[in-house]
Design brief:
membrane, FecR family protein, three-stranded mixed sheet, Phage tail protein beta-alpha-beta fold, sigma factor antagonist activity, 18 strands, Ferrdict_sens_TM, alpha+beta, elongated, transmembrane
Length: about 325
């Protein structure tokens, strides 16, 4: 359907002069556009629904309301200035734009103008403030996505891939704050400090202060300070445990504290956050337990300590650390 013909149909429909066939034609065009959701597949379900509701359905409702509220004239109608019909024309123009340029283009415009994605490269951390002034420290090789503007009526939501530490501001209106992970877990708070790790299908939340509710599609769990919760998306299990919080969140302060952590677990974490690769020629070293601290940006110092403590040799070849 050409844009010129589309505009003509909308004008006739709003004026109450469209034939039944023209009405069907226009509504079919609209419904067909809404059914094409290929452009939404990369988004979480909540964002898909927000886009459908906010950007699409309200346009049609806005125009429909104009027609519904129109009353039959009992006397020659007064000429109404264009500015008096601003709401109608904005809605009509939005519909013309949507159907003329296609939903994928509108989605691109909506997403880029309304949402902000912040990513970190491997081995780098970044500190940001959210629209409500809550603090987020993003670990290496991670990203957060959120709406550029928040108002007091909406839920504060952040989508996380990787690892981040949150210090959430409490608001006078007691707004919920929700962190969404890629495996469908929701971490809901009012005002608190907590760490979320979400990589390779593993999710772990550590609560430092306040109260957090962790939810998956089937169950909820309310955490207490000093607790960690591990989540298995495959088994739909939420497993709590008491932990030492400081070593787990120490990365946010540019240092890494290790308390009885296996060498294998240390390097598995660093492979995710720093992008390093490790090859074990000496398999027994994997199960050795390490205690100590190193600067967050000094991987070489960590390898030096491991060489001295466990009498192994570490070489770097083609970007791979080889332990033997």
């Amino acid at each position: 359907m050409e844009q010129r013909h589309l505009v003509k149909l909308i004008k006739k429909w709003v004026a109450g002069k469209a034939s039944p066939d023209e009405r069907i034609q226009l509504e079919e065009k609209w419904n067909n556009a809404l059914q094409d959701e290929s452009y939404l597949q990369s988004l979480p379900e909540q964002e898909r629904e927000d886009l459908r509701t906010t950007s699409f359905q309200n346009v049609w409702k806005g125009i429909y309301a104009q027609e519904k509220n129109r009353q039959p004239a009992r006397k020659p109608a007064k000429k109404v200035p264009l500015y008096a019909r601003r709401t109608f024309w904005m809605a009509a123009a939005s519909l013309v734009l949507l159907l003329a340029i296609g939903i994928p283009a509108l989605y691109k415009f909506y997403y880029e103008s309304a949402w902000l994605t912040i990513s970190t490269p491997a081995g780098k951390r970044r500190q940001i403030k959210l629209p409500d002034q809550s603090l987020v420290i993003i670990n290496g090789n991670s990203s957060v996505r959120f709406a550029k503007e928040w108002d007091q009526a909406q839920i504060r939501e952040v989508w996380l891939k990787g690892e981040a530490y949150f210090s959430v501001q409490h608001t006078a209106s007691h707004q919920k704050f929700i962190v969404h992970t890629s495996d469908g877990l929701k971490v809901e708070v009012l005002g608190t400090k907590f760490n979320v790790f979400n990589r390779q299908g593993d999710t772990r939340i550590v609560l430092q202060e306040g109260k957090v509710k962790v939810s998956d599609p089937t169950k909820d769990y309310v955490m207490k300070p000093g607790e960690a919760v591990s989540y298995s998306a495959q088994m739909h299990t939420i497993t709590p445990e008491i932990v030492q919080v400081q070593p787990i969140v120490s990365w946010k302060d540019k240092i890494r504290l290790y308390r009885d952590v296996s060498i294998q677990d240390i390097f598995k974490e660093l492979q995710e956050s720093h992008g390093i690769r490790v090859e074990y020629k000496n398999q027994s070293i994997k199960h050795e337990v390490f205690n100590g601290s190193v600067p967050n940006d000094s991987i070489e110092l960590l390898f030096d300590k491991i060489e001295k403590l466990y009498a192994v040799n570490v070489t770097k070849l083609n970007g791979v650390y080889i332990i033997e």
